[in-house]
Amino acid sequence: MRAVPLALPLVMLLAVMAAADAPDPPPRTLLFTALPDWRGIWQTQGAAASVSGAGAKAAAQGAASLPASYKSCRPVGFPTIMFIPLSDFMFELLVTPEQTLLASTDGTVRHIYTDGRSHPKAEDLWPTPTGDSIGHWEGGTLVVDTIAREAGPIAPFPGSPDLSAGAHFTERLRRLDADTMEDVITIEDPGRMPRPLQSTVLYKRAHDVDRLIPIDCEHDRDTVVGGKIVIAPPR
């Protein structure tokens, strides 16, 4: 019978002992304690102002200038959902160790992956209304990198720059206080814009709602009144 070299069992024993002494990974529940608390329902500061009466005229003018296609039932996508000034457009954030999920009343959903992954390889990547987003945390700031967003205007407003599918978006999203969030958005598209475009958007927590209610435009029940979309009761 062939003898087993002594060194092999010894190496295996040491490996088992080292594994036993290695610290366990932190429980997933502890990972949540390092994340910021972004619970609640949020809307742009302009949308919040239109509800309170301040800025209603400007919001109404913005709504009136929207093209007919904007009032269709298709989700507006990114980055429009981050700018929209109408009070009916709200979103909720779910922050987990693996991703931050943004869900809007119009059906737009953004997955911002924070688990260390990179963007997909070119052969697995194609343009979508929200693009592909990955992010990382710098303290309480979520730094987001988005590519592969469908070609088209930044937002459905007159004069909005038309972007290519190669546009690159960088966001720095953070909470300023209990009821205010900030998103600094930088858009780079050398083929369409001579220089990067940067915009800072503020969001306010909506205290008068406790859940997202999807916008129902399928049966033309939504109308713009005073700068906000009013949803008629079910018939």
Shape descriptor reads globular
Radius of gyration from the CA trace? 23 Å
Structural classification: alpha+beta
Task: Give, in spatial order, the strands making up the sheet with the most strands.
Answer: 1-2-3-4-5-6-9-10-11
**Which whole number gives the mean pLDDT?**
81
Q: Assess the beta-strand content as a share of residues.
A: 25-35%
Portion in helices:
10-25%
Tally the beta strands: 13
Q: What is the number of domains?
A: 1
What is the first-to-last residue Cα distance? 86 Å
Low-confidence stretches at least 5 residues in length (pLDDT < 50)? Answer: 53-60, 220-235
Largest sheet: 9 strands, mixed, barrel
User: Could you give the order of the helices and strands?
Assistant: HHEHHHEEEEEEEEEEEE
**What's the number of helices?**
5
What does this structure look like?
With 235 residues, this protein is an alpha+beta fold. The chain has one domain. It has five helices and 13 strands. The strands form three sheets. It has a nine-stranded mixed β-barrel. A hairpin with a 2-residue loop joins β9 and β10. α3 packs across α4. The radius of gyration is 23 Å and the shape is globular. The C terminus is likely disordered.
Short summary of the structure?
The chain is α+β, with helices and mostly antiparallel strands. Helix content is about 15%, strand content about 30%.
Keywords:
single chain; 9-stranded mixed beta barrel; two-stranded antiparallel ribbon; 5 helices; 13 strands
